[in-house]
Amino acid sequence: MDIKIKTNVEQDYLSVKEGFQASLFKKLSPPFPPVKLIRFDGSEKGDIVSLELNFIFFRQKWVSKITEDQTTEEEFYFVDEGIELPFFLKSWKHKHRIIGTSKGSIIQDEISYQAPFKLLTWLLYPAMILQFAYRIPIYKKVFKKEG
Description:
InterPro entries: START-like_dom_sf. The protein is of the alpha+beta class. Helix content is 26%, strand content 45%.
């Protein structure tokens, strides 16, 4: 299943790139399930991000590896792919794009995921949309033009 969510922000793409740190990741985590950041190497190829999702009665580990990153004159992007996923996911690939515009940048999340079976993939879709829509006002606040 594929999802694409775009957020317009006021800062230029290189400033937004610099803001993609562990502190931003923590702000982007939704209230449920609570997420504990175990490891955050960064957003360059080879980096690892490890999380623990707390579903109250049980916890699930989620480990992603950054498999690509590139900075051009127009955009910065990096791709994280799941290498250890919660039981409800079979595959995960998330391309984070920060595209420069004349008025700032567009942060574009391009997610591709699969659950262990097709029905669950479809059932997860609304939750995935909500998880990433939750980020929109946070991105807008964090990357508001200063001054």
